[in-house]
Amino acid sequence: MRSKLMFVALCGSVVTIGLGHYFVENIKPQLQAKTEIDDAVLYESHFRPHPITASNTTRKRRRRRRRRNARSDPGELYARKRERADDYSSSRFPIRTHIVTQGEPRTATTLLFNMVGVSYFLYLFENEPEKIPDLQLKYYKRHDGRKVMRKSKSPHIFKTHSDLGYYLSENAVVFAAAENRNEAVEMRKTLEKDGHTVAFVQDLETLKEDGLASLVNVYVAGYGLSEKNRTSLNDYFSKWEILRQCCGKQMSMKWRNEMMPEKYKIPSIASSHPICSSIDINGVEQAFMKTELYSLIEEYPSVRGLNKASLKDGSLNGTYCSSYNYLVRTQGLSFWGTPGGRPSRTKLDGAIKSQLKLGKKNLKPEAYHLLPPSDKPMNKLMSKWMRRTTEEKMSWLKAILAARESGETLSDYGIETTSSKDGTIDGFYSGQDNTPDVSGLSDVLNDKEPEHIGAEGIAQDNHLEAHHRQFDDTRAIFLISFGDEAAKSSLVERCILSLRRRGAWDGYVVLLTDAPQERYENVWDENVIVMHPLGKHLKTPDGSPLEFTENNFSLKSKRFKTFIIDYIGMDKRLDSVRLIYYLDIDIMAGGALADLFIGLESKYDVSLEERDGGLSKLYFFTPLSEEWPLQGGTFIVERMSSRYCLELWRKEIDEMTLSGRGRDQDGLRNIYQLVQSGKETTCELIKMDNDNFISFPIPRTFDKISRQSNFPNLIHISNSVFAKWIDEEAQTDYIHKVLQLSEEEKLSNKYGKVIINPKKSDMKR
């Protein structure tokens, strides 16, 4: 009897398991169908603007309904857990002097930064408005956040992708971004264990499911904001999020790829963006600019960067997005703001990446030391390699290929080689056993930075790194614009537009001008610093005013070139600047300024530190005319060492002023001759070759230059000399091409040929 019962029970178990498996298999397609998320529906539900949003009462009703149904519907248990998680994340945020936002790229870190920044701005506006003018928004690629935190008393909001260990500080609070909820929970635990004060960890999984309104609720609760603030934030971010996706440098990769000319499209990004193609982007931009919160932020220069598609974008003007998108469509504007699509990796770099991916496969054990730590992400490994010279890369590649048992050679990667007389390849082999010489590569494998970047820094293998560079606070560009004619012209705007767009420079630009304060208000991003001249800089050392004549009136403004270091010292934001590049305002950037900096500084040994023995240096390009040895429209100033040379130059300018004659370049010629004769030993004026760093278009060469598809780093069409002799239409077309203008910008007639009378363009008498 017992055996029969056991047999029946066993049969019942088998049937139950079988039926259970059958029904579970049958509902699998249903579960999969329910969990698949349609991108278009997601954006329609959570990111596009809606005229009506759920009220607090409606949300409370939904929560009560979930609680009632929790026992009968297991899915509601998950909803209740989510509510508890929301309650935890919506607790009041700790307030510290500094805020750090951090996450891996493409985890909505730009949204995180802007949501934190705008919400904290509202908190300060309601509670501590006196702190807003000192608030600084910073993106840091380097690991120097903690240094800034310790030194600066001004509140900062940092955005970084770096390890948060470099931002550990008692006076900072962290907002982080994660891929999913589980990662967010673990990230909070780890950060708090490491000693960080954590306010909130945003995760993409929750953001996709609940949308922006839910995220706004977290910040309203976290900063104790009002219902009016909640409405303003929802209105503001429902439009801003569309701009971030469909406009500017941080736009969706899908949308950028969709707009790219066919030859620049990336095949692996096959799908299109769900909404950008159907959006009136100008309409969204203009509606965003009309929001109450946008107008309030614009009243405070310190936080205007929040009112852009990203910190790295230009200021909105109603058509900024359509103009930027036009450049993507016509010129293949890349993520780094340069035309021509994504910079292609060289064959050598491609081979290195392939070998790094292979790891220890078919590699002799004695060569394991050639591989970097296996836990390093590939993008970080390649970023390190981009800094190395071709010789270092080739040495490592040959060493790793020689140690692989697969038998691959350089020719398998399309890399051509030439044999030397001793039978080695390219001279990179050494020793009787013909093994590669890989000495000195331990720094690469241990993730150390190179001590210096040689002249090959401007070669193709370092081209990618130049365009990957982010905000650089060790260099600044200095412009001077004086006089009514200059203020009425668009020369300054033209110059800065080229620096940002064609030069891909997002660092500091200092403009010294005697134009009224309102002339350049609300024109540029927060890294353009407008200063005004001091009257004491037009007096001799004994305090008497300088008298200028018609013949030397231009010296009045040129004298201010010699006070560059003094003006840099007048703004605390510029404390970290070590090299200053002076440019005349009729200069345009024609190529990446990172290439210019690397090339000149390595070739001419420009120093960021104070020089031994008190030696002072200035660096100038070579002019077209043999009358002067140095071209005074562009020069490099070493902040720690150049003061003595600048003072000598000022002394020469003053002596010419008293005698009623001369130009600033005459003064440079006098000093240069003293240096060459050996009579002046403390100052050295370096003459730099123009090479492809700078060109000076003149009527005789303009037609040839204008037909070239590549541009030098700097283009100087002298507005007071050569510009007036070059055909206006041809010159304007060339300028439009350099500036990468959209059709709308061209039709504005804002940029083109400009002529200024130098005797009328200087400071008012």
From TrEMBL:
<feature type="region of interest" description="Disordered">
    <location>
        <begin position="51"/>
        <end position="83"/>
    </location>
</feature>
<protein>
    <submittedName>
        <fullName>Uncharacterized protein</fullName>
    </submittedName>
</protein>
<feature type="compositionally biased region" description="Basic and acidic residues">
    <location>
        <begin position="70"/>
        <end position="83"/>
    </location>
</feature>
<feature type="compositionally biased region" description="Basic residues">
    <location>
        <begin position="58"/>
        <end position="69"/>
    </location>
</feature>
